[in-house]
From TrEMBL:
One Pfam assignment: Guanylate_kin
Family as reported in the entry's similarity comment: Belongs to the guanylate kinase family.
The protein's role, per its UniProt record: Essential for recycling GMP and indirectly, cGMP.
Keyword Ligase: no
EC number: 2.7.4.8
Protein name per Swiss-Prot or TrEMBL: Guanylate kinase
Length: 219
């Protein structure tokens, strides 16, 4: 009887269809798109020092590679420090609408940011840093919209800026006067930027800029 009971139960178990193991599929989570960080400031505001600090903070920040019409200097290589174009090639790119921003520093010496280069860097998984003048900053922000953060580095006052420029000891008085006049023009654009960091104390300004950018990248 015991053998019959065991046989019956084995038969009964075999009569039920076996359940296939159920695997819980983990959906592909969306990857946050890389972003553009734009910096503008009057000369002498400490922008370069703040940017260089941020580049070392593990935020995956990479400078955009600009185009220029000037000849290479020293060991500069095309596509590394700059994309070197002839003045005619640069003008052709302007006419084709391929620049996010550009400026002619003086006759036939252009600098600019190519749309294709910034997009290539974004597609390669880099957050791109653009160090440009205020008009260029506004143009890049307009192009990328919410994917870009524009940051204006501001001196505490024009008088402090003047003192900083004088303390450098590198510029003639007339050059400083020109820089101050331009700074007053550039300061009028500050309200158009997403964030304004006043560089009164460098360490404090660096920490504030880091917090602003980290929060933006984590959105």
């Amino acid at each position: 009887m015991a053998y019959d009971y065991i046989a019956f139960n084995l038969y009964a178990l075999s009569a039920f269809p076996k359940k296939k193991p159920h695997h819980h599929l983990i959906p592909n989570l969306p990857i946050a798109p890389m972003k553009v960080i734009i910096f503008s400031a009057p000369s002498g505001s400490g922008k370069s020092t703040i940017i260089n600090y941020l580049m070392k903070q593990g935020l995956n920040l990479h400078f955009s590679i600009s185009a220029t019409s000037r000849p290479p200097r020293g060991t500069e290589q095309n596509g590394v420090e700059y994309f070197f174009l002839t003045p005619e090639e640069f003008r052709q790119q302007i006419d084709a609408g391929n620049f996010l921003e550009y400026q002619e520093v003086y006759a036939d010496h252009f600098y600019g940011t190519l749309k294709s280069q910034v997009d290539n860097q974004l597609n390669q998984g880099e957050n791109v840093v653009c160090d440009v003048d205020v008009i260029g900053g506004c143009n890049i922000k307009k192009h990328y919209g919410d994917r870009a953060l524009s940051v204006f580095i501001q001196p505490p006052s024009i008088e402090v800026l003047r003192q900083r420029l004088e303390n450098r000891g590198t510029d003639a008085p007339e050059v400083i006067a020109d820089r101050i006049a331009r700074a007053e023009f550039e300061l009028s654009f500050a309200p158009q930027f997403d964030a304004v960091v006043v560089n009164d104390d460098l360490a404090t300004a660096q920490e504030e800029a880091y917090r602003i950018i980290k929060d933006f990248l984590e959105k």
